[in-house]
Amino acid sequence: MGPVQVEIIGGENGNAYVRLPAGSSPQLELLLKYAGQRPSYGGSCVLVADREALPENWTSQLQGSTVDLVVGWGFEEEESTECPFVALKSPAAARQYFGRHPFRNTLFLVFVGNEPAIGDLLGYMGAPLHQATLQVDLNALFHNLEAHRSALQPGTAVAVMVKANAYGAGLIETGRALERAGVDYLAVAYADEGLQLRRAGVECPIMVLNTEIAAFEHFIQGQLEPVVYHFQLLRKLAAMLEEHQVDMPVHLEFNTGMNRLGFEPEEAQAVGDFISGQAHIRVATTFAHLAASGAPEHDGFTEQQMAKFIAACTELDRHLGYRAPRHLLNSGGVARFPQYDMDMVRLGIGVYGADETSVLQPKLRTVMQLQACISQVRTLQAGETVGYSRAGQLPVGSKVATLGIGYADGVPRALSRGRHQVLINGQLAPIAGNVCMDMCMADVTHIPDVEAGSLATIFGAEPTVEMTAERLGTIPYEVFTNVGPRVRRVYRETI
Length: 495
Known about the structure:
By secondary structure, the protein is of the alpha/beta class. Helices cover 29% and strands 23% of the residues.
């Protein structure tokens, strides 16, 4: 059996819905293989099946699998399996069943032959309904991670940013995938994100970059590791740990020129002296954030930052009484300053397929592709315009396609009136008129065979996220993270 791709839809409560992509030959063994390779994350594995779609030997295939429960319809009473079985009369009964039985961190293997029935059923099972989709290629994510790892000195640890919903890719499934890929740390912005990962069964160390003292109890509950960046926070944290008699690893941030967060380098001695007297705090790592690692014109300033950081760490370690691991480089730094790998690096945008330095870009693959279905196609008559404010002025006879995606989903209004082109049937179509909250229109006059149900790509391999960002006057980070929460995340992985 050669490599085969599976499709994973991220859902509520840490649930994931796995199926073979539409048009694939139905092979139960492939879904069972994927389930066997994937950790349980504290949940169960449920096979949801239509008897007509299953092979004759389906019961023998289940033997030794990770399936905990079978829910299906069309079965004879005498059919049985070694695992619990819920026999239903019809797909309608399945909808009722899932409405009454909540699941958490469950892997659903969906094996239903009728494609419309799958879409209908997934909605009742808790999968997102909105057809606007962010396709996330997990194999490309793994490839990009390895591309950065290969640029590091052997033994260098790797932390990957999954803050802001994993740069739009989806916090839970992306975090789980990166944990499976063996990253040393996941980094989030706030404790809420770390708790979501813990509830989803993610066990690897999690660093919280913006520590809020109000979330202290949650740091203990979720075994999250706070970043500490000023003395008031350090003293409060120390007092709470003493009160609760709890030990906690912390990460110290120094401000060497970013001027966002961090102890000043001159405070290194005082910080070291204070922590050395605390029974419940140990420094897990120290770090600083480079302000312009991807900009060669600021390399002199970057070198100054590096020198300040090394000096601060040296002084800190002398007063701590031990050497704390150090990390300084982000994705851009890994590409341009490999001599400063230190003990760990923090990867972000590069893993998601965009390289601001262009050094590693030829080695990276596209991870995210934003797509939407066409809802309707119409031909304009004389005097007709498109969209709000009648901003879409097109010739008589022009064909206009309406896409089920708008600025609430991640297509900013600034892309209106031809500023951006979407890919439909292999050709680029300019956006016509103003982008609406939930929809936008494209001029498809020159593209044959466009109809309701056709797919449009807003960004991906073409047009790229870099093109989209340039048209918006922004950076790929913002384009990725602007993808709205109601857009469903669909992950592809080859097994």
